[in-house]
Every structure is written in C-alpha cells, then in structure tokens.
Amino acid sequence: MEGENEVDAVALFIKNFKPSNDLVKPDEETLKKISESVLPEEYITLVKEYGFGNYGNGIIKVINPFEYADNLYTWLGQKDSNKLPIMMNAFGDLFYYRIFEDGEEDICSLEIHYKDINVCGIDFEDFVEEYLLDEDTQKCVLRKELFTEALERDGELKLNEIFLFVPALAIGGGENIKYIKKGDAITHQNVLFQLQ
User: Fold this and answer.
1) pTM over cut 0.90
2) Burial status of residue 32 (CB atoms within 10 A of its CB: 0-12, 13-18, 19 or more)
3) At 134, phi and psi to the nearest 5?
4) pLDDT tens for each residue of 71-97
5) Could you tell me the domains of the chain?
6) Cα–Cα distances in angstroms (integers) from residue 191 to residues 53, 69, 84, 170, 184, in the given order
7) Which of 105, 110, 167, 170 is deepest in the core (most CB within 10 A)?
8) Tens digit of pLDDT for each residue in 162-182?
9) Coiled-coil region(s) at which residues (predicted)?
10) In this structure, are residues 168 and 195 in contact, taking their beta carbons and an 8 Å threshold?
C-alpha cells in the first residue's frame, strides 16, 4: 500500500535524523503551494507533521522549496517547476526532487562545491533508506566527521545557516575544520555560482 511506504519513509527519516526543537511549520499559503506542487507525499507529510529546519543536529535540513528554487534554477540554467529543492546538507549542497513527463521521478543532489549533479534515489523512500543512511553518503556527501567537528566548535546552525568553506573549495579552501565558518545558505550558494 502506498500509504504504508509513505509512513515508513518519514518514520525512518525521523528515527535516523532527530528533529530539532526549533523547527518551523509552514504557513497555510506555503503548505497549499507545497501540496499543489509536484513534490512527493512523503515530503509533504514530513513538512506538515514536523516542519522546516535542522534534522540530525543540522547534518541535513528540510527546506522550504520555494525559498531555494531560484538558486536551484540558477545552477541548472533554467526554471523548471517539475524540479524543486527539498533538503540541504549542512554545507549547502541541495537535494532536489524531479518528476518527468512520463511520471518517473527521482531525487538528485546538486553539489555546489564541486559543481556536480548526481541521482540519489528513484523515490523518497529509496533516497532515505538507500542513500541518506548509506555509510559512504554519510562520510562523503554529508561529511559527517567534519560536520561533527564544526558542530562541536561552532555550535548549532540556524534555520537558513550552513557551514561554509572559507576560502571556497574552488579557490583554494579545503575540507578541513580550519576553513569552516557559518554563513547564510542562499547567499553562499549564489557566491559559489558566481565563481564558475
């Protein structure tokens, strides 16, 4: 049954990425836009029941797709309402949902530091179970070790805040705690795009 998978994927996500205490529930207008969009039911349920913000101490963030859509479209080179950002790691890389004309769907990552796009899962359940919980993903994509160091040194991230590399990786920074600072996610995504 479809409803069972939905509950399973959301429950699995919540079990592995504990919601922070300061999640922000969407207002009615945002919830209506999300519900009328192409986004999967699991994401809609997650946002309705829990809200936007930090999960797993901020290693992953559930984001308002409409606040980050323009950045995604800038990176992709065109606006496409069949592609919407749903999550972001603590370092600003976006995870976005896309649905094709034939009804097929997937979730991709936009790695802003390395200017790379990868398919992460064929649906929300696959994205959570097979991708986010994968040891290699936790190590390389979520940068779990570096995240833990930064969290211990700099404290929790705010709603739209990320850990960023200064200088940016593209101009000589490194994936090392000495290059980590906190900053605004949307601003940093725009800055990194300008470095292309």
Assistant:
1) yes
2) exposed
3) -70, 135
4) 999 999 999 999 999 999 999 999 999
5) 2-142 (3.40.1580)
6) 22, 16, 20, 11, 11
7) 110
8) 999 999 998 999 999 999 999
9) none
10) yes
